[in-house]
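comment on this one:
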Amino acid sequence: MSCYACLGDEVKIVFLLYRMSGILFEDIFDVKDINCDGKKFDKVSRLHCESESFKMDLILDINTWLYPMDFGDKFRLILAQTLREDGYPTDGPNYNPLESGPSRADPFEYVMYGKVYRIEGDEGESTGRLAAYVSYGGLLMKLQGDANTLHGFEVDKCIYLLMKKIAF
């Protein structure tokens, strides 16, 4: 559903518990294009992706030397405020998973830490679409879609990006 107010009480409770776990967004994405404006850097590619469940558009820079991606790949993406499974906050780059037990990042292949630097609405604002922009140390991400799906994003909030390719 595209409207939080339209959800049933049971679904709202599950949704709120999910947010309390520190996860801001999760979906499966398909890589639709790579470097459509040309390749700018040797070890970085810009992915253009579309999500399966929430119909979100994602533009994401990744280090392809560390994590190669191809056209048509599918991957699971989680954006989270913390790497702790219990949702307890971490101190960002000072977080040491060896001191706190299992990490949300353990089953993932590619993890980045960054900061939301801008949130924009579509022209006219009547469409209910937002775009959240995050910088991961210069690797950029733009996630665009339904405003209700992005309501947990705030400027200057630090978030983790977790990715894992999936077989299909």
User: Anything to note?
Assistant: Confidence is low (pLDDT under 50) at residues 11-19. Residues 9-20 form the longest helix (12 residues). The helical segments are 9-20, 97-100. The chain is about 10% helix and 40% strand.
